[in-house]
Amino acid sequence: xxSTVRTNAGAINGRELDMxxxxxxxxxxxxxxxxxxxxxxxxxxxxxxxxxxxxxxGQLLEPAxxxxxxxxxxxxxMFGGSAGALALSPNALTGGASGAVFGLMAAAAVGLQQxxxxxxxxxxxxxxILNLLITFTIPGISIGGHVGGALMxxxxxxxxxxxxxxxxxxxxxxxAPVAGMVASVFFIAAxx
Length: 192
Fold this sequence. Notes:
The chain is mostly helical. The chain has one domain: Up-down Bundle (Rhomboid-like fold). It has helices at residues 14-17, 23-27, 33-36, 44-65, 67-88, 98-114, 123-137, 143-161, 170-191, and strands at 4-7, 10-13. Strands 1-2 form a two-stranded antiparallel ribbon. α5 (67-88) runs antiparallel to α8 (143-161), α6 (98-114) runs antiparallel to α7 (123-137) and α6 (98-114) packs parallel to α8. The radius of gyration is 16 Å and the shape is globular. The two termini are 32 Å apart.
């Protein structure tokens, strides 16, 4: 039987503690938590909402980007969410794919805007606003994780979805998400 820790989100067991993100764990060299925490969820509603939004956003973004670039966008947003969570709540035990999902929502909104479509006239704008409202009103939700993921997703999405750029050039497919991930790691290292 693993140990159990009590948090604002409820009780977590030893297995969840092995994946959760906190600045303490980064301080002791467990950098893998920047990624593992994105696969940890605190309950069925948490995982269900994230997977539903991920499925919907994947239907929209993956055909436009391709599987590889979509995956890079996802992980860049996950790193941005981890950086935001550590910046605003360094001692909280954070987990969930929400930062990456917020990044995908923001990337989709930016991509629509770049193509002359007002995101507020689609489901993306309303979904993003509603989820931000929930983020700031319900206690125990990682504001830093959601905002950090959204900011990173918007930045990387801006570069990856720009219709006038030649995205077939190999450097474009890698430059924005890799730069985002590296910037997140440098930001987290600066927190130490």
